[in-house]
């Protein structure tokens, strides 16, 4: 490869900018030309592609969102759209690309590599729902935001001796709820991977209150249900009157943590080195501290294993 491109796609996440910066700077370091595609796959089709230099990624490592913007693009799901995208790259002499996004974006990346463009996919999503990497870019920041919010809620909940239900992101993967719940000392953590028993949760909360507990926090991943519904189920079984907080898109914003910046920096540079080595069609990750490259199609077909060890720990500690 002599010339590569980078794009961000799907939902944005904190650290995408750090990944873009890493791809651009590493490519230039290795003597490659590097381009940015604006608005994900949409920009590939509309030919919204521009050359990048060292300074075009200055002052972005600390910023949330993505300077390349992102879009959902239906047209790229068609063969014609994919061919058009690949053609727009080829006519500029670009023969490699780094796609930063979630599982949908991985499917697009797989299609692009089938069109003969050397492709690397990086996990950019707050949900941590991509297998073959321990963490996705943005997850660590999202968890810290939730923990920070729960710290604040705890102050006021303790003053009023109230229970609090906090709804967090995670449609199929409960990792944000799990990690943030564990880190903030939640009393119950509801994740899509494990069925919950409200009778048991309510009974335990009642007992804990009788034994002097003065705050109760239930963290619920959106994939389990709405915070309001969980609060109603609790009210039906206890005399608690829980307050509901839906954190929503706040979880996707803000400056990335050092963990996310480092993860993004390592993966961006690794993607460039893999392309230089002639590799293609790989999804990159870090597993137990080691950089890994797995065929994208294998990653698309797999489900992220649930961290049962952490979940069981939360059960032992939430008394
Ligand atoms: P998040 O997990 O944060 O929602 P995502 O990457 O999964 O991010 P999607 O909207 O699912 O977000 O996908 C992003 C884009 O990837 C889509 O808008 C589309 O352009 C492309 N894409 C998704 N699925 C396919 C597919 N099967 N074939 C080609 N392109 C696809």
Automatic annotation (TrEMBL):
Keywords, comma-separated and alphabetical: Allosteric enzyme, ATP-binding, Cytoplasm, Glycolysis, Kinase, Magnesium, Metal-binding, Nucleotide-binding, Transferase
Enzyme Commission (EC) number: 2.7.1.11
Known pathway: Carbohydrate degradation; glycolysis; D-glyceraldehyde 3-phosphate and glycerone phosphate from D-glucose: step 3/4
Co-factor(s): Mg(2+)
Annotated InterPro entries: ATP_PFK, ATP_PFK_prok-type, PFKA_ATP_prok, Phosphofructokinase_CS, Phosphofructokinase_dom, PKF_sf
Residues that hold Mg(2+) according to the record: 103
Domain of life: Bacteria
Pfam families referenced in this protein's UniProt entry, alphabetically: PFK
Cellular component GO terms, alphabetical: 6-phosphofructokinase complex
Binding site for ADP: 21-25, 154, 185-187, 213-215
Family: Belongs to the phosphofructokinase type A (PFKA) family. ATP-dependent PFK group I subfamily. Prokaryotic clade 'B1' sub-subfamily.
Entry function: Catalyzes the phosphorylation of D-fructose 6-phosphate to fructose 1,6-bisphosphate by ATP, the first committing step of glycolysis.
Protein name: ATP-dependent 6-phosphofructokinase
Organism: Xylanibacillus composti
């Amino acid at each position: 490869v002599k010339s590569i491109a980078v794009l961000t796609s799907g939902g944005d996440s904190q650290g995408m900018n750090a990944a873009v910066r890493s791809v651009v700077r590493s490519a230039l370091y290795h003597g490659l030309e590097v381009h940015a595609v604006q608005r994900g796959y949409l920009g590939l089709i509309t030919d919204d592609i521009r050359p990048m230099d060292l300074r075009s990624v200055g002052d972005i490592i600390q910023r949330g969102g993505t300077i390349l913007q992102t879009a959902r693009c239906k047209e790229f799901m068609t063969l014609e759209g994919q061919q058009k995208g690949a053609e727009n790259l080829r006519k500029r002499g670009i023969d490699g690309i780094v796609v930063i996004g979630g599982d949908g974006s991985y499917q697009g990346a797989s299609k692009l590599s089938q069109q003969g463009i050397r492709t690397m996919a990086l996990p950019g999503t707050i949900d941590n729902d991509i297998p073959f990497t321990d963490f996705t870019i943005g997850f660590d920041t999202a968890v810290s935001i939730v923990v920070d919010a729960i710290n604040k809620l705890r102050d006021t909940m303790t003053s009023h001796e109230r229970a609090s239900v906090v709804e967090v992101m995670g449609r199929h993967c409960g990792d944000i709820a799990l990690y943030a719940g564990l880190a903030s000392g939640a009393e119950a953590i509801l994740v899509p991977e494990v069925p919950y028993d409200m009778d048991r949760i309510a009974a335990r909360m009642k007992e804990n209150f009788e034994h002097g507990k003065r705050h109760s926090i239930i963290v619920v991943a959106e994939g389990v249900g709405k915070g309001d519904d969980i609060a109603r189920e609790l009210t039906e079984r206890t005399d608690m009157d829980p307050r509901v907080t839906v954190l929503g898109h706040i979880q996707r914003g803000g400056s990335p943590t050092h963990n996310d910046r480092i993860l993004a920096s390592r993966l961006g540079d690794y993607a460039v080195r893999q392309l230089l080595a002639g590799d293609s069609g790989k999804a990159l990750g870090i597993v137990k501290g080691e950089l890994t490259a797995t065929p994208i199609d294998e990653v698309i077909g797999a489900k992220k294993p649930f961290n049962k060890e952490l979940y069981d720990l939360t059960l032992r500690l939430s008394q």
